[in-house]
Each structure stands twice: as C-alpha cells, then as structure tokens.
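Q: Sequence in, structure out?
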Amino acid sequence: MAMTAKQPYHKGDLPALLLKAAEEELSENGLERFSLRAAAKRANVSHAAPAHHFKDMTGLLSALGAEGYRRLIAAQEHRQAQAAPDRVSQFVALGLGYADFAEAHPALFQLMFASEKPDRSHPDFAEASLAAFAKLQDGVNALYPDETDEARRTTMLMTSWSVVHGLAELIISGRAAAPMQLDVRTPEERDAMIHAILMRVHEVKGQQTERSS
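A: Exactly. Output:
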C-alpha cells in the first residue's frame, strides 16, 4: 500500500496549520476525544510536530483559545463597522458580534470560556482574553460617560457581560430557539431582539442609578 505523503509546508506556516487542524478536530470530535496526535493527523504532519511547537496539548489549546479571543474581537469590530457611530449602536454591535462568534464557533467558544483545558495564565491566552474584556468594558463605559462611581461602573459592566454571554450560551445550546422563535425569525429580526434585550437591561439599570443618586 502506498504511503500518503506528508503535506508540504513552510516552517513558519506550521503553527497556523496546526491551529486550523486543532479547531476542526475540536469542532467535529469535542474535547473528550481531542489529542495532539489527532490534530497532527488531521494536519497531515508528523505526530511530533504539535509538541515541537506547542509543547503539549495544554499549549496547543491555550494558543487556540487565544486565537479565538482575537477572532471574537474581530467579529465585534465587523459589527461595529456596519453600525451607526453613536455609542448605543456601537454597544449593541458588540453584543451582536459576541453572539455571531458564539453561533459560528460554538466548540471554540466553549473552549475559551467553559473549559479547564487551556492554561489561562499562558501569556498569549491572558493577553487576548483581557483584550476581549477591555473591548466590552470600553463599550459599557461609553454608554455612561458621566458615571464616576467605580462600583456602579463595575456593576454595569458585569450585568452587560452576564446578559450577552448568557444569551450566547442559550443560543448555541438551543435553549433560546423556542422562546426567541429563532427558527422562524430572519437575521434582522434576531438582531432586533438582541438589541431590545440589551437596551432593556440598560434602561432598567439607568432607572436604578437615577433613583439611587
């Protein structure tokens, strides 16, 4: 039987090749069946290649998670580029981009936020995740430019993150399909519903802030 030739690649392309293969393996077979050998086989490279560059499975998954955070930011910036420049529209675009990314890459989304497999102290992972958090923080701060109380700003930030992340989780798990009627809604109607949910949260939050002032 003829042996299949290994896929040719330039040395600098190997990390990207392995990350692509790792994401495909993760999406198709899940974390339970994930291994360096499986990723290498999918990339059609030596089984030692992932360990050579990423050291171990934790290193590879940490790098993949970091790439996920960068792509999450890119999805949000894509939505922001399409939105009106006012601060409300820009904030809603952050939430829409968050949901877009989760729907398009559910396995990667779970790796980034729900798995213990990546090393969250890994420099690349930590930097990318903090950048994604800062992106949301900037959007919330822009909604309340006159708020100087740090505790209130933190409450607004965590409320926003909880809502948008929880909504993304409900959508990708299928639990939001029936109550949001996602199977019969157009993409525009789905976006409008997410917009309304985010604005309702901040409408209530704004009323509470006014009463406590």
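The chain has a mean pLDDT of 89.
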